[in-house]
Amino acid sequence: MEKYLEMLSFCRPAGSVYEEAFVEKYLREPHRPIEDGYGNQIIDVGSKPNIVWSSHTDTVHRDSRLQHIEVGKKDGFARVAPRQKLSNCLGADCTTGVWLMLEMVEAGIPGRYIFHRAEERGMLGSTWLAKNAPEWLKGIDAAIAFDRMGTNEVITHQGSCTASNEFATSLATILGGAYKPSSNGVYTDTKAYARIVPECTNIGVGYYRQHSPSESQDLNHLKWLRDVMVKFDQSTLVFKRDPAAVAEYDPYDFYEWDQAQYDWSAYVNLVRRNPSTIAAIMQDLGYDYDKLDIDIYKRNRNKTSAL
Fold it and tell me: What is the pTM of this model?
């Protein structure tokens, strides 16, 4: 796991110097990927791949720099070293996914491996690809992301349905362990492909409390999952979902996301329509009740003082 721990040391805000250094060291130099117009890095293994494997190269770190990582002797979890007081997260989201995909590439597992840019800024790299270079998705039956907390979920819903239960069940069976279909997903890059690719999912890779200083990665689960993925046999996957059957209006669709970036009222209405899902997203981002309550109080106090 030495390489993985080294990768975690890179704090990589989107577009930062250390993200570029990370991409150069772990992707460009050893693998010479194709780079699309947004900067997404693409590696094909095998001829005519029908599966996209998905991760992203940016993290939610505030600063672009290096950090120190420690591994718990008792629990085998990776964490930011206690002396790293300035680090706001570990960055297992999505260093874990990048590392898993590189292990699969080196093992020769067939697929189209897309290492996306700027996922943490709103799936910008995947949204760009879906709109401007959809030819990369031609002939693709499934897009599978390694960008989910926990150790047992195969996601069927990222806001709306993005993968069939039949597909999720077939994938969970291949993975083994405690994996099972789950409709509790939020969003990741594969969501951007849901109108083009039949099955778009995300699987838990063993990190917890992502986007927070207490983020951690279960290294034992990661080793186990790596061993599964470097022997992955897709022959029993079931593809059922029709991407053309997406609802006429999908509030989680990437086109709506683009619009929402420029329309504050769209954000507010989205929250009003989906309070439970927004609460789940906030929890995924590392907010507990007290932290959210304090931030709401501070924001409201600032509004009042400005009047």
Answer: 0.83
Q: How far is CA 116 from CA 126, 137, 215, 218, in A?
A: 6, 14, 22, 23
Note the pLDDT tens digit of each residue in 233-285. 999 999 999 998 865 445 555 545 454 444 555 567 677 777 877 887 887 77
CA dist., res. 88 & res. 63, Å (int): 9
Query: Per the structure block, which two tokens stand in for 44?
Result: 């094909």
Tokens of residue 214, six digits: 């207490």
DSSP-derived 3-state class of residue 204: strand
Give dist(CA 91, CA 68) in Å, integer: 12
Place of tokens 């979890």: 77
β-bridge mates for residue 10, sequence order? 66
d(C-alpha 267, C-alpha 272), whole Å: 9
Domain 2-245 has CATH 3.40.630.10: yes
Q: Which residues lie below 8 Å from residue 280, measured CB to CB, with a gap of 6+? A: 184, 186
Domain ranges of the chain: 2-245, 254-305
